[in-house]
Amino acid sequence: MLHINKIRENKEAYIALLKVKNMDASILFDSVIALDDKRKSTQQKLDEILAKGNKLASQIGDFYKEGKAQEANILKEESSSVKDKSKVLQKKQSELEKKIQDILVQIPNVPHSSVPSGKSDADNITIKESGKIPTLMSGAKPHWELTSKYRLIDFELGTKITGAGFPVYTDRGARLQRALITYFLDKNIAAGYTEFLPPHLVSEASGFGTGNLPDKDGQMYHAKDDNLFLIPTAEVPVTNFFRDVIVKDFPIKCTAYTPCFRREAGSYGKDVRGLNRLHQFDKVEIVQIQHPDKSYKTLDSMVRHVSSILDELELPYRILQLCGGDLSFTSALTFDFEVYSAGQQKWLEVSSVSNFESFQANRLKLRYKDKDGKTSLCHTLNGSALALPRIYAALIENNQTPNGIKLPKALHSYVGFDIIK
RNA sequence: GGAGAGAUGGCAGAGUGGUCGAAUGCGGUGGUCUUGAAAACCAUUGUGCAGCAAUGUACCGGGGGUUCGAAUCCCUCUCUCUCCGCCA
User: Fold this and answer.
1) ipTM score here?
2) CB 3.0–4.6 Å: which of A99, A131, A179, A378 could bond A415 by disulfide?
3) Using 50, 70 and 90 to split pLDDT, how confident is the model at A266?
């Protein structure tokens, strides 16, 4: 959520920038500023009336102490009428506040000035390509055939016990999954992140804190009896650690492994085969809370960090800068990582690293104190490091040989074997 | 699941109708002292909104009510703790 004062200060610039997100904000901005003007003047009137009421009340108290009941009674009447007036204004005020809030939550984050315009993912800009796209042996297979050939994942068993999109990892397949989780966490810890293992269900309040509720509630699984939601990403619990917090030292760096649960309502068709799109998958997330002056440096460092992991896994990947049309509601600047999965000859998104600036922090009331003792909103950033299923898919597809699947060196000590035969 | 207790500032903890935005202690910050540090002592130390400021106003878990006046009384919701039961 944008802060009203920032909209006031940067109105024209924001309107121009939001055009990159294919949005015309001028009418919304004008109406929200007009409402806020009204809110301010109402607040002033209300404060005056309340001040009067407070004065009267204490005068009445004094009269009683002095035993002047009659004088007190006269003031009581006056006080009552003041109270009636204040009630009217208070109601008006809270209506104004609600209207303002209703508009503000509709406005997406302002994109960073470097974000290219564009309508869809087709307009994203490739800013880096790394690694060689492998030429596979003849008869190379997509991962859903490999997982069954080497008995790594049992999709049917998952369907039997739960439903489609809930795979069962078996034997070496399970060990590979667990190894990847540990490996990613270790890489993140080595980069200075502190590991957390948060709950996998969150309250409604947390859902609001990260903006998953009320807009995207159809995407989360809901345990209705207890009104808890299964997390769609570790970002939800971890970011909510910092709800109503005043930060003392920057940066705060968190990493967390969690399973992620997504209903994926409305998505169907091509991309759902194998590991490409699941209802439950594992992901290791990185989150940073940073001073506004440093958040873009931090974003770069997070991009480099994710790159270094993919380098070490010897996976070919490319980094895309998302165009305005593909940028999420909350993000100011996002880099997507895609790995090339040679068996299906496709680029698969495995990470999305974003700077949300103060957009999330405003809703969370996540602030810091500057040197003058003023409180200001922090910047929040997050990214996947990394999402497991598509990494898994690319790893086994790209490394398939006639003799089996050869795992990259970095994983040997984690998995306990170097080839899957 | 049954019974009870509670929710106050960064933390601990007083306050049961009117100088309470809130005692006191701890912690934090600044200072005095010291070669330096510790100790001691002094001062300072919540957040939002409006205002250039002075200041005003709101906030004692959330919402509602009683009253001229509520942290304090009433209703309601949420959460936490203790005991019992069940249980990984």
Assistant:
1) 0.86
2) A179
3) low
